[in-house]
Specification:
The structure holds 2 protein chains of 2 kinds. By secondary structure, chain A is mainly alpha-helical. Chain A is built from 11 helices and no strands. Chain A has a single domain, classed as MetI-like fold, CATH 1.10.3720. Classes of the chains: A mainly alpha, B alpha/beta. At the A-B interface, α7 and α8 of A face α3, α4 and α7 of B.
């Protein structure tokens, strides 16, 4: 009577064996890599915050001049360096970003396979590999020797560093814009410049902004190109176009190498300030591009 | 010129299928309209590769002309030469004569952008811009210098209505054009194309990426649009050609075994009914009956 046999159930588990073992090994390895990458990052952030947070105050961020190294940390502030960094990086970006984006547009949209485009692309790649101190020396010899130290000279040096990054990253982003979009625009009777400005650039905007930010963050943290170009003084110079200037990375360098506890604390404080500026910049740019990227999905 | 602000209220009703059947049954061979394109001995090259050889055919106004044939037979290449899209491909070159309303399309003073403003194109894969639905349709009018908000609103609405998309998107004109389904996206691309009020609409396999229902919608739309526009459509779907087109051109890949080169040729061109029911060339017959290709 009870002779009804149940049909065998399907076994959908991953069968035990080498394949399952490989899967586990790979998963563990990925987790290990993740931890290995994240630990130094957290450690750097933790150290900078732990050592720098105590000196940060409104006075530290805004007042100047930067006091002599022997004085304790609660005297004076990094105001001149904050101002200098903002001035110089803003000027460098104002020079480099339009130039770099336009250069990339030329390379991808107009140059095609001609020798000039090839040459520019090649030189941009070579420039990416030039050490930053060489950029500083280069601007020192062609600009500072004739016109003296200035924020402008620093901006030139940082700009020389940023330019290849902006060109390369923008170029890669333009390359990702599908040709079908360009064709759609051409088919409506748009000219090449229209196609580029109204379809290609907006479609690539998010990626272009990311690349530009990367270049700005990189430049904001550079010390070497500024060594020979802004002289690194202790007082504020609101005129970015003439006279010696100062910046956060060069002040970190100048203070952290001193034996005095006050100077070292100021160095940590300046480091934290620099990280915070880069962080705020990233978030601000993300908010701005999110408005444009609304239609990308 | 027609009134650029069509009566929107009159366009709300969808086309009635019965009426369309009648239009299709019209015997086009006896009474062709004006010849809008005169293609004479056209050969098209990509570098040293001769993609199409000696194509000659007239295209008539307010008709749907279908290009059929196997892959590589050059039908898309010929289609793209009507609005000079091949100019965008480095090394592309055209020999022979191609006239549009009596004017050579490849003449010395002819601007490709001016050509494309009159001869629009819908592509195989829907390619809405990463902009809002509204901005997608308003794109063409804007590049033609229309910036008046009220005027643009009117154009966007009437174009979307003509493309049978208005009812589906009227409450979300500000959402991304990329959020639409494949069939809707293709109708958006059609709306975008007719928003500039072109004279001719070229369609390169407009329904090949769509399901049968969306395909049906696009086909109904084509039949509706031909009242106002001239349409040339490339299709791999022979039922589609019989359903929508008035005239059919059959292209064929000619292989030269001696030099091992292939090139596309126009084998036969005529009223759709004749091409499918009484083809004169055995190659056409083989293709339309499904024996070859």
């Amino acid at each position: 009577m009870a002779a009804i046999t149940e049909p065998p159930k399907a076994d959908l588990r991953e069968p035990a064996g080498w394949r399952r073992t490989k899967n586990r090994i790979a998963t563990v390895l990925m987790w290990i890599s993740f931890v290995v990458v994240i630990i130094p990052l957290i450690f750097v952030l933790y150290t900078v915050i732990a050592k720098g947070a105590s000196v940060i105050s409104w006075q530290f961020l805004t007042s100047g001049p930067i006091p002599p190294n022997v004085l304790p940390a609660d005297v004076g502030g990094m105001g001149p360096a904050v101002l200098g960094t903002i001035e110089i990086v803003a000027l460098a970006s104002a020079i480099t970003v339009p130039l770099g984006v336009l250069g990339a547009i030329y390379l991808n949209e107009y140059g095609g396979k001609n020798w000039l485009a090839w040459f520019i692309g090649f030189m941009a790649d070579v420039m990416t590999g030039v050490p930053s101190i060489v950029m500083g020396l280069f601007i020192f010899s062609i600009w500072v020797l004739h016109f003296g130290f200035s924020g402008l000279a620093g901006a030139f040096a940082l700009g020389a560093l940023m330019l290849p990054i902006v060109i390369r990253s923008t170029y890669e982003m333009l390359l990702l814009v599908p040709d079908t979009l360009r064709e759609g625009s051409y088919a409506l009777g748009a000219s090449k410049s229209r196609v580029t400005l109204t379809v290609v650039l907006p479609a690539a905007l998010g990626g272009i902004v990311s690349g530009v930010l990367l270049a700005i963050a990189r430049a904001a943290g550079e010390t070497a190109p500024l060594l020979f170009t802004i002289l690194t003084v202790t007082s504020a110079n609101p005129n970015v176009f003439s006279g010696p200037n100062t910046s956060l990375p060069s002040q970190i360098f100048a203070n952290a190498t001193q034996p005095y506890p006050g100077a070292q604390a100021r160095g940590w404080g300046a480091a934290l300030t620099l990280i915070a500026i880069a962080f705020i910049l990233m978030i601000a740019a993300r908010i701005v591009t999110a408005r444009y990227a609304r239609y990308q999905r | 010129m027609e009134d650029p602000q069509p009566n929107v209220a009159a366009k709300t009703e969808l086309p009635k299928p019965a009426a369309l059947q009648e239009t299709r049954a019209r015997d086009v061979s006896s009474a062709p309209g004006n010849c809008i394109f005169d293609v004479n001995n056209v050969s098209i090259y990509y570098g040293s590769f001769k993609a199409v050889t000696d194509v000659t055919l007239p295209v008539y106004e307010n008709e749907i002309t279908a290009f059929i044939g196997s892959s590589g037979s050059g039908k898309s290449t010929v289609l793209r030469s009507f609005n000079r899209m091949n100019d965008l491909i480095p090394g592309a070159r055209l020999e022979g004569e191609m006239a549009y309303r009596g004017e050579s399309l490849y003449g010395r003073d002819v601007s490709a952008t001016a050509v494309r403003r009159r001869i629009g194109m819908v592509f195989q894969k829907p390619n809405p811009f990463p902009k809002s639905i509204y901005d997608n349709v308003a794109y063409g009018p804007r590049i033609n210098g229309i910036h008046n908000k009220g005027k643009l609103d009117e154009i966007v609405e009437s174009s979307l209505r003509k493309a049978a998309l208005w009812e589906e998107v009227k409450n979300r004109l500000k959402t991304s054009g990329l959020s639409l389904s494949g069939g809707q996206a293709q109708r958006l691309c059609i709306a975008r194309t007719i928003a500039v009020e072109p004279d001719v609409v070229l369609m390169d396999e407009p329904a090949s990426a769509l399901d049968p229902i969306a395909t049906g919608a696009i086909e109904d739309l084509m039949k509706e649009l031909k009242q106002q526009y001239t349409i040339i459509v490339v299709t791999h779907n022979m039922q589609q050609a019989t359903r929508v087109s008035d005239r059919t051109a059959f292209f064929y890949v000619l292989t030269d075994t001696k030099s091992d080169t292939r090139t596309g040729v126009l084998v036969e061109y005529g009223p759709t009914a004749q091409i499918f029911e009484d083809p004169k060339d055995p190659r056409t017959q083989g293709y339309v009956t499904g024996r070859v290709g």
